[in-house]
Design a protein that fits this description.
This protein has 276 residues and is α+β, with helices and mostly antiparallel strands. It folds into two domains: 2-102, no CATH class; 111-272, 3-Layer(aba) Sandwich (YojJ-like (1), CATH 3.40.1700.10. Helix content is 47%, strand content 15%. The protein contains ten helices and eight strands. The chain starts with a helix and ends with a strand. Residues 258-272 have low confidence and may be disordered.
Length: 276
């Protein structure tokens, strides 16, 4: 019996078979990482249930149900593309930001980063507090749900309008994904630990809290001093000018999300707020 099994070719995978299996496993893992924390998870479960129902209908010879589900299979592929359009767009954009591809393609200055820099500069001059969360790889959908959805193209004028004192959306954070302001007046988590004697306000604490939980980059403008700060990887950096903020954001947003130790640092020496 053992000799018979050893003679079966499919039990002796070649190197190409192992590469094929590893590639499929990697793609499946990346798909699940892409949709983790989004509504796409529930949608995917719905598709899996429909596929399971089709298989059971065929197995149990339920002719009417089987014909209906078989007919639906023709449009499932199109439906998946439509339903997962935002996730597919994010995946393609992430592929384009791959570190190996950037060797061949010269990165261009992001227009949305320039709008953020201009808005931060103007808000700083006017001593208007602001909190801007920039999504990277981790989804911020759970925090988007705490605010008011906007879905408009990110411009400096829009960002200044959102944080105008006493406006309906000025209190909380604005969350940006790609080129758009997804939502405003969002509630961010506070950090697990922070010095009790710290004189930093709620905006700065919320910025640190979000970057402890996700790989987001958060820009903070102090209402009291007009100081521009940036939080990433659970650390808060202060003392930015327009030029240093632009340089730091370009380095963070053009590179894959990394641990704070490996995140690129700007040339100017900035003050890092101690965590105690």
């Amino acid at each position: 019996m053992l000799s018979y099994l050893l003679r079966m070719s499919f039990l002796r995978p070649s190197l190409l078979d192992l590469v094929d299996i590893a590639a499929v496993a990697f793609l499946v893992y990346q798909i699940f990482m892409l949709i983790r924390g989004t509504r796409a998870v529930q949608m995917l479960m719905g598709f899996l249930i429909l596929m399971l129902g089709a298989s059971l209908a065929q197995l149990l010879s339920l002719s009417a149900l089987n014909r209906m589900l078989t007919a639906l299979q023709a449009v499932w592929l199109v439906a998946i593309v439509l339903v997962f359009q935002p996730e597919l767009r994010t995946a393609l954009a992430r592929l384009g930001r791959n570190r190996y591809l950037r060797f061949f393609v010269k990165p261009e200055r992001s227009p949305v980063l320039e709008e953020i820099v201009v808005a931060a500069r103007e808000l700083s001059k006017a001593r208007v507090g602001a909190l801007l969360a920039l999504q990277r790889e981790n989804s911020l959908e759970e925090y988007v749900d705490t605010g008011t959805r906007i879905g408009a193209r990110a411009t400096a004028d829009l960002l200044r309008t959102i944080f105008t004192p006493y406006s309906p959306l000025h209190d909380g954070a604005a969350i940006l994904e790609g080129q758009r302001v997804v939502a405003a007046s969002c509630i961010l988590p506070l950090p697990r630990e922070f010095p009790a004697h710290s004189d930093l306000g709620t905006r700065h604490r919320a910025a640190v809290g979000l970057t402890e939980e996700t790989d987001a980059v958060v820009v903070v403008v102090s209402e009291e001093t007009g100081t521009i700060s940036l939080a990433v990887g659970g650390e808060l950096e202060t003392g930015f000018t327009s030029d240093t903020l632009r340089e730091r954001l370009q380095g963070l947003m053009s590179a894959p999300a990394a641990s704070p130790a490996s995140a690129p640092e700007p040339e100017p020496v900035l003050e890092r707020v101690p965590r105690g």
